[in-house]
Amino acid sequence: MDPIYRVPRHILPPAGLPLAAAVSGGADSLCLLGLLLDLGHRPVVAHVDHSLRPESAAEAAQVGELAQSLGLEFALARVQPRALAAARKWSLEEASRHLRYGALARTAVQYGAAHIATGHTADDQAETVLMHFLRGSGLAGLKGMPYSTPLAELHLPTLSPGSGKLMLVRPLLDMSRVETEAYCAARGWTPIFDPSNADTSFFRNRLRHELLPELEKYNPNIRRVLTRTAAVLAADYEALQAETGRAWEEALDHTEAGAVYFRRAALLALPLAYRRGVLRRAIASLRPDLRDIDFGTVARALAFAEAPPATGKVDLAAGLCLRVQDDRLALCEWHYAPGVDDLPQLSEPVRLPLPLGIVSIGSGWRARTETREGKSEVSDFGRLRESPDSIHSELEHKHDIWQAFFDADAVGDEIMLRPRRPGDRLQPIGMEAGSTKVSDLMINLKVPSAAREGWPLLVNGRDVLWVTGLRTHHDYRITSDTRRVLVVALEHPE
Asked: In this predicted model, what pLDDT tens digit does every residue of 393-441 receive, in sequence order?
């Protein structure tokens, strides 16, 4: 079949309208360029020099000469992915991808193009599906690359403000790499050979040159099987997304800046596939640039929702956590908490009353303390069972992050809230030995820098007992030997 009939024309703009074509000079991108010309388009030839090899400048010049010979506009962008990879702690592949699409977007905007065409082929699709499978992706990854997608959905921080409406199109997804090479040979074009494509230190190259050839020993048509699987799952994904949207509305309680709240019972009542989809959507809403939300992350979130641990909180991914608050499940930033923007910034210590009392700490907030014997029945902070050995299990159901429980006898007779001081350290609960700097803890938990200095710390004469809202001290935890429980709570005016 003539390759021109393999191109899905509906994804392209009408001939005559501006169009940017990503042309590296390899067989796939040259085939893309040739087929666009065959269809009557006059694309801008957009070349991105990644500055990774000494010969890259000469290759850019070669692509520029081809564009000139065809009477086409040539746009060259040079990027530095090594520097970005080092700065962001990304892989070189990821940094290159971000910068490449950012450069292509700027070129499209410059020339007034609404579409960017790339030379992704069926072989690239097979590699993409296999890569996502190995990383544990769900349908969102296994459906592979679509023929057309809004560039904004790639969630790249390198995109310029004017690129929000650009469309990324992949006209060659039904063509194999062998076919693109044959097309170039028929036109008399000699593709540029990029030796980095053979470098198996890159994950995708290992799939291409090692794993796929091995799988072909079991099924010579494995690439076709993978691309067909992607096509089938893309349709399934579209249907599932529609149902997930309805499930989202059923389970959602509300959203806030930095948090998504679900009605926990409603979420757990959903079919498993919808629960997974809703959680993926929630993660994506808070981390739009997070790629490949893996199965393990979602499974951990579901396990937590079904049976929250005593802490009422669990790390999830990329600085996000899950919390249980009453009958709600919150996906949020680690530092997020209701009213955190109003949390008072302390400049002086505030002594707290013992064994019981309430004191104002500023900005309408107050601190409440209460000391209870193990045989107490009910308090404003929750029920304490008759047996002292049951105290800890009973408190497992209390999940307010502004409330903490301590062994009162271990704490002593004097406590206060004060701002952070140089050298403050904490042995977080669960850490059997050693300690961490409070400043490092705040950074790791993404407490806003402006809030760290005056963040209230609960202390006694010896230790930091509680970095409020975040972590308590291991040595002051409730145990089976606890006879008196000290409860300290910060109460927001609302």
From this structure: 333 334 467 889 999 999 999 999 999 999 999 999 878 778 999 998 8
pTM recorded for the entire structure: 0.65
Q: Give CA–CA dist 69/328, Å, rounded.
A: 64
List pLDDT tens digits, range 20-32: 999 999 999 999 9
Distance from C-alpha of 188 to C-alpha of 206, rounded to nearest angstrom: 30
Spatial distance between the Cα atoms of 294 and 279, rounded to a whole number of angstroms: 12
Quote the CA–CA distance of 237 and 283 in Å, as a whole number: 17
CB 229 within 8 A of CB 141: no
The domains located in the chain, with CATH, are: 3-218 (3.40.50.620), 238-333 (3.30.465.60), 341-491 (no CATH)
Closest CA to 391 of 481, 489, 488: 481
How far apart CA 401 and CA 323 sit, in angstroms, is 9
What does the alpha-carbon distance between residue 313 and residue 386 come to, in Å, rounded to a whole number? 27
- Name which of 30, 37, 17 is nearest 108 in CA terms: 17
